[in-house]
Amino acid sequence: MTTPIILYHYNASPYAWKVRKALGIKGLAWQSVKTPVTLPKPDLVRMTGGYRGVPVMQLGADIFIDSGLIMAELEARWPEPTLYPNGNSGLPQGLAFWTANWFTTCFQLLAAKIGDKFPDDFKADRKAMFPTIDIDALAAGAEPFGAKGAQAAAEFRAHAALVNEQLADGRDFLQGPRPSRADIEAGFPLVFVGHVMGDLAWLIKGLDRLAPWFERLEALGEGDRADLPAEDAQRTAAEAMPAETGFDADDPVDIAPGTSVVVKATDANRGEVAGEIVGLGVARMSVRRQAEGVGDVVVHFPRAGFRLHAG
Length: 311
Ligand SMILES: N[C@@H](CCC(=O)N[C@@H](CS)C(=O)NCC(=O)O)C(=O)O
Hints:
Blueprint: E1 6-9, H1 14-26, E2 29-34, H2 42-48, E3 56-59, E4 62-65, H3 67-77, H4 91-114, H5 120-129, H6 135-140, H7 150-166, H8 181-197, H9 210-219, E5 224-227, H10 230-239, E6 260-265, E7 272-280, E8 284-291, E9 295-302, E10 306-310
This protein binds glutathione.
Glutathione binds near residues 14, 54 and 129.
């Protein structure tokens, strides 16, 4: 029996949309464990040990953090149809770092438009997670020129124009006739504005290739979703053994297998995960920990964007 794919997420999460779109391109069946939008997220945190971001994937007793690492694991285990047609596998993964930058304009736009209506618990939660984004100033609208959020909108359009330009020769998807990771990365800021804010048209006015391209992307679906109670996901982990992990002795970080560590994201306060380092490689690091009521799990993190701290 193949290991079921379990995704911890919520529908409005654009980062989770990326993974759902990868599942759609691959036509995979998967199980959905819903998390709240703000803390507390007990079912998620029980498995991760403290990371509170979304999406997170569980395969047996292995827990994968971050949309990029999740898609890499999906590609490794279910290679066809590929997310990387024509051998384009390196830089399309790197696009995640570009579109994460583009995505900051989306949150700024949201705060500028409706930040004054954010529920208090949501605002406090996001302030704690993104201490560098001043939601109140954005909501108050300190713009020297134009309407509230005008400069975030202009910056959004500058990024979106790159996608429009890539589509200029009439191709269906960014790398040709087949959808790829590049489409997923470039699509997710549009998801936020389209799904969460509900008004994409004005922002992409004049960028005429974007709407039909985004419709093609949406038409790829999300694979075959079934809801799963969190307790069933926990039972799956309890009955499984974590996979073996490699340990690169030449890693720039000088650390012995089994050392106690704490792992944290570098871009925002997404929580800390404490455990014993059991895997280290150029693309990922893995920490073994005990999940309450479940037993041993191994939590996998990408190297880019996460750091090891003394445990
Ligand atoms: N680098 C992470 C970023 C994930 C992220 O920012 N997720 C948002 C949801 S779209 C989040 O964690 N929001 C706070 C939360 O859900 O608690 C990834 O690619 O998975």
